[in-house]
Amino acid sequence: MPAAQQPPRAEQCHCFLARRTARQITRFYDAHLHPVGLKITQFLTLAILNERPLAAITDLADRLDVDATAMGKMIATLERAGVVEVHRAKTDGRSRVVSMTVKGRARFEAAVPLWRGAQAAIEQANAVETKERLRLGLSIPAISPAA
């Protein structure tokens, strides 16, 4: 049977490979951040709050490219852990904004060297000279599903 007519295998699918790689990388970063009790998604949330001390939950969701409901659950987890506070927005009482607490800042600062270690290991595993190519290679052009 010609290759074009053979049924596709999961390992041939770019999406499958990207999703598998993403899960592996996530587990790798989570393991590095484990000593401070953060997952990579939580660390990245705190990193955004470090850049922007007050952010709307919807803005955080957009920035991390996650569903607003998932972002809300993550914020609730971080709030229970005492690392963020949720407030009503001053301009719109229906909107909620998030800020990092003193405890959150301390946890974030403790996590930064662990994150840097994970970054360095990923870069080393992918050859230092290709670090920028790695980042560029992770991009995908904007396409519509009908294209």
From TrEMBL:
What InterPro entries would the database entry show?
ArsR-like_HTH (IPR011991), HTH_MarR-typ (IPR000835), MarR/SlyA-like (IPR039422), WH-like_DNA-bd_sf (IPR036388), WH_DNA-bd_sf (IPR036390)
Q: Where is the HTH marR-type domain?
A: 11-145
SUPFAM superfamilies noted in UniProt = Winged helix' DNA-binding domain
Pfam families xrefs: MarR
Q: Which PROSITE patterns match?
A: HTH_MARR_2
Q: Which domain of life is it from?
A: Bacteria
List, alphabetically, the PANTHER family matched.
TRANSCRIPTIONAL REGULATOR, MARR FAMILY, TRANSCRIPTIONAL REPRESSOR PROTEIN-RELATED
Recorded protein name is MarR family winged helix-turn-helix transcriptional regulator
What organism is this sequence from?
Sphingomonas morindae
